[in-house]
Amino acid sequence: MQLYDRGLRRRLPPMVDGDRRRVELAYSLLFTLPGTPVLFYGEEIGMGENLAAEGRQAVRTPMQWTPEAGAGYSTAEPGTFPNPLADGAFAPRKVNVYEQSRDPGSLLSRIRLFAERYREAPELAWGEYRVVEAGERAVLAHIGCATDGTILAVHNFADRPVTARLRLPEAGPGGRLTDLLDEGHAGLTVPDDGLLPIELPAYGYRWLRVGTPADDPERVASD
User: Fold this and answer.
1) Residue 179: band (very low, low, confident or very high) from pLDDT cuts 50, 70, 90
2) How many structural domains does the chain have?
3) Sheet of 128-132: strands edge to edge?
4) Where is the Sucrose hydrolase-like C-terminal domain (predicted)?
5) Angle of helix 20-32 versus helix 107-119 axis, rounded to 10
6) Is 209 found in the same domain as 166?
7) What does the alpha-carbon distance between residue 137 and residue 9 come to, in Å, rounded to a whole number?
8) 23 lies in which domain range?
9) Which residue, of 114, 146, 152, 221, has the greatest Cβ tally within 10 A?
10) What is the C-alpha separation between 118 and 207, in angstroms, rounded?
11) Distances in Å between the alpha carbon of 51 and those of 9, 10, 19, 77, 133?
């Protein structure tokens, strides 16, 4: 889908048939791999494109602010817009900022959380990057390690649940890992054999802050 050796005429959501799991997986990778994460406008709500438009204009559709006919972009007749709106499953009535901003389970809310956690984790932006053997070929596990701490990101590219098993010298037996994206997830503790199992759903991912046994207040209190 590349044009002119430098640009695309597709957006991610339509390319994965609107599969929310795969959309989130891709954006999670964007925020956790080395480099600066950059989002093209509208990607935070899962906008599509209009392939009826020529060349790169296909992805330069009006921003979809509301579900109204003009998408909140303009009160003018949509037929007069510089580029046509997306239609079908990605039309403004189905994908828009107004509705997603009021839904804590929306893609917009998830992207906001990615951005917030990214800002709170300098290890991802500035830390030393290292791939960790996961014991499962469908899983990419990598660490961002800096003076202030260590973040582990784990991504499952398979369309089935998997269990990754990792050895983390940064934590060691008894080390505690805290989920940064889901407070409902219980923390993980590295078992005595040092091999940490992490269960992931199809296209699942987790961001985990790595701690040592000394970071566990309950362990410190008992000692």
Assistant:
1) very high
2) 2
3) 128-132, 139-146, 149-156, 205-210, 176-179, 188-189
4) 150-209
5) 20
6) yes
7) 31
8) 2-119
9) 152
10) 10
11) 8, 8, 19, 20, 41
Say yes or no: 112 and 39 in one domain.
Answer: yes
Residues 206 and 150 in one domain: yes
For residue range 120-161, list pLDDT tens digits in order: 999 998 899 999 999 999 999 999 999 879 999 999 999 999
- 13 shares its domain with 74: yes
The answer on 132 and 91 residing in a single domain is: no
The two most distant CA atoms of the chain are separated, in Å, by: 72
Q: For residue 193, how many other CB atoms are within 10 A of its CB?
A: 8
Q: Which of 67, 114, 117 is nearest to 93 (CA)?
A: 67
The span from the CA of 114 to the CA of 182, in Å, is 11
Q: 107-145 in b/e burial notation, b at 16+ Cβ within 10 A? A: bbebbebbeebbeebebbbebeeeebebebebbbbbbbb
